[in-house]
Amino acid sequence: MAMSIAAPVTGCLSAFCVPGKLRCTNYRKNGDHMNIEKYKVFLTAARKGSFIQAARELGYTPSAVTQMMNSLENECGFSLLQRSNKGVVLTKEGHAILPYARQLVEVEERLEEQCENIKGIHLGRLRIAGFTSTACAIILPVVERFQERYPNIDVDILEENSPKALAEWVRSGVADITITTKQPDYENEWILLNVNPYVAVLSKENPLARKDCITAEEMQISQVLMFRSRHGLESNVAEYMKKYQLQPLSTFTSNCNYVMLKKLEQTSCVSLLPVYMWDFYAPMHPGLTARPISPPLSCDIILTVASFGECSVPARAFIECTKEFVKDSLT
Q1: 179 and 319 housed in the same domain
Q2: What is the pTM of this model?
Q3: I need a surface site. Which of 59, 72, 250, 268 has the fewest CB within 10 A?
């Protein structure tokens, strides 16, 4: 991952260096590039909800971020972010400006990428989003493969455990690519990477662990420990449980698979996980085991973008690396 390091520079607000590119840029207060950088600061502060977090991600000092935001708001003539001791949130005017700021920054990034590609230098930045488990099990190995080929392209991995939120991130431009599970009425453009079966995960001490395959009828005698994002259960799991009358453990849910599996070690419950997730978590939970389920349940792992026809050169290269990884590791 590329990191940014802030450093004071006489006569300008700040400078940052990106390892790999070894690029240092001084931004003049009234320069055009400085104006673009102000919008990057605005977008990052809005996403992070904090000037301090935005400064850390972009490689500025917090005072430089505050100075740039004040300057941008003076240019706009109204406040974009509401400040408080808890951080920052978008104002009504900030919400209205946000999509246009994203477009402006994306066009500047595309222009820079194209200029470098014409010169034969692969340069750019990608924002890849997914579930925490997907980020570890799929996205990170793909990034490692990708950066071996394109070391000058920076990659940001964004984590979110709600499929609905991930879909919105692609539509709004927060993420260039997401790797997620397909939900009903999915609107973004997508390609199917893998159809991944679910397994029942349970304690090795659970009597059901002695079976080679666990039926839905057998799971009816156990409560099901559920993963729940801030937008609810995954639709295919919810439908499966309703169809086969499986009872959720109503006193506990989690939006973190690691927490859910730690809880599972302490109960006689079962949980339903895609195989790729279980394969990743299994070494961390030696007290748990997994069994196929009948009738079977599966999820579609998809890669999504706003428009395949408008993908940047780095995004297209990342998509090809993802297909290669899935073919080598998930099939």
Answers
A1: yes
A2: 0.64
A3: 250
Interior CA angle at 18 toward 12 and 21, to 5°? 115
183 lies in the same domain as 233: no
CATH number, domain containing residue 278: 3.40.190.290
CATH number at residue 129: 3.40.190.10
Domain range for 98 is 5-118
pLDDT digits (tens, 9 = 90+) for 51-89: 999 988 888 888 889 999 999 999 999 999 999 999 999
239 and 165 fall within a common domain: no
251, pLDDT greater than 60 = yes
- Cα torsion 138, 135, 183, 262 to 10°: value is 110
